[in-house]
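Hey, I was hoping to borrow your eyes for a little while. I'm sending you its amino acid sequence along with the backbone structure tokens. Take your time with it, there's no hurry, and the full record follows here.
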Amino acid sequence: MELKKSVILDKNSAIPLYHQIKEDIIMKINNNEYQLNEKLPAENELISSYGVSRTTVRKAVELLVNEGYLKVKRGVGTFIEKPTLNLWNLEKLRGFDEEVNRQGLHGKTEVLNIQKINSNKKLKSIFGNSYKEYYKLDRLRYIEDEPSILVTTYLPKDIAPDLDKFDFAALSLFNVLKENYHIKIDYATRTFEAINASEEIAKMLHIEKNSAIQLVDTVTYDDKNTPIEYSISRDRGDITRFKVILKM
């Protein structure tokens, strides 16, 4: 494989060099500069191209192998692979479509239901007592044509009136909130819990009843520190992984 021209790494960035290299290689894979089943350039070529140490290159390659982008064949070399699972990167708030596309995977959304509901104790604990009605949006997310994430989202009707007129099988909720309701999304908090899938959820996700899944509660806030969206997702453990970078 011909070595592709690499980006100039930012050695003053808080993002580790090995992570910058990893992201550059992922970009090249997604842009088809590196083709599936092609051999990755030799280690010495990568060291020379990126201007880093052998340890840094090996760390980047190790991460790419773990994430399914590369496969090491002993005595032959390292080859480009297509990831078989979704590795949700928590270092930045991204919507489903953006995250899946970033990994070069094919994703789609099926809208199961969107309806108006009255406030309840849980919603009051998140949004306060100002809102009486909410939109409840149920969606099933597919990754590589496999049902992977079942997500239920709640939004106050007052901040997004007529939300039910949009086709969320084709549109990103975050983009609709930004472009149509001029909401400036700032950050989100997420809570993770391991649970066993109920019979109903297991059937929808094409897994066995009581299979381990990840329950993820997310509250999204605008630039005024006001909660604008609450979601509960049930993620298949055999397809979805979560990754976060921890720094001193």
Q: What stands out?
A: Residues 47 and 53 are 6 Å apart (CA to CA). The helical segments are 17-30, 43-50, 54-66, 96-102, 121-127, 173-181, 199-205.
